[in-house]
Amino acid sequence: MKSRHNSMPGLKGQMAKQLGEAQSRYTYFLLAIAASAIAFAVQKTTGRTLDRSMVLLGFAVLSWGGSFFAGCRNRAYFSSALYANIALLQLEDGTHPKLPPHPDLLEAAYEGVRNALENNSSAAGFWGRLQFRLLVLGAIFFLSWHIFEMASLNKLAEPVFQTSLLTLTLK
Fold first, then answer.
1. Which residue of 20, 33, 65, 101 has the fewest C-beta atoms within 10 A of its own C-beta?
2. How many CA within 13 A on the CB side of residue 124?
3. Structural domain that includes position 25
4. How many domains does the chain contain in total?
5. 12 falls within a domain
6. How far is 8 from 94, CA to CA, in rounded Å?
7. Per-residue pLDDT of the chain (171 residues; tens, 9 = 90+)
């Protein structure tokens, strides 16, 4: 069977490798941010009693947990796509260890591996986009919680501030 695609020689191969490495670093960076954000939320609430003001923070932590999960799924599908790509290249150049002997079987194997590659690539993209979106959603929930906490503290501090002013004017 003739190769449907030329192997990526030279510069194209190097660029594809660099792109894959950059995508991996980006995904791992987002994984680290999600894990750090969860740890930060736990640290900020250690020793506090659970109350309804923490609902927004809970949604933030759930979003970050979902982001972490999505990042792990992205890596799994990325690896599967890479494996399928290697198998496809081996089928094309005749070096696959389970190379079918008949041209029709080879064509069927080629199509099956190509479909697996496309499905895995598509799934990796889905999970990667979801990872980022959930990370941002978690940040929005966290900032909302933080603003709510600041507003609550201002309401508590207001009577103390007014009492202090009253005391100063009476003296």
1. 101
2. 18
3. 19-143
4. 1
5. no
6. 16
7. 444 555 556 787 788 788 888 989 999 999 999 999 999 999 999 999 888 889 999 999 999 999 999 999 999 999 999 889 888 888 778 777 777 777 787 788 888 889 999 999 999 999 999 999 999 999 999 999 999 988 887 776 565 555 555 555 555
Provide the token pair at 68: 């972490």
In a domain, 160, yes or no: no
From CA 8, how far away is CA 134, in angstroms rounded? 35
* pTM of the predicted structure, to 2 decimals: 0.78
R_g of the chain, CA atoms, integer Å: 27
- Check the CA dihedral 43-45-49-52 and report its sign: negative
CA angle 32, 34, 37 (to 5 degrees): 105
Q: Cβ distance 140 to 51 under 8 Å? A: no
Q: Give the list of residues 6+ apart from residue 18 with CB closer than 8 angstroms, or none.
A: none
DSSP 8-state assignment for residue 53: G
Domain for residue 89, yes or no?
yes
Which pair of tokens denotes residue 112? 């099956």
Residue 161 within any structural domain of the chain: no
Angle between helix 103-170 and helix 55-93 axes, rounded to 10 deg: 160
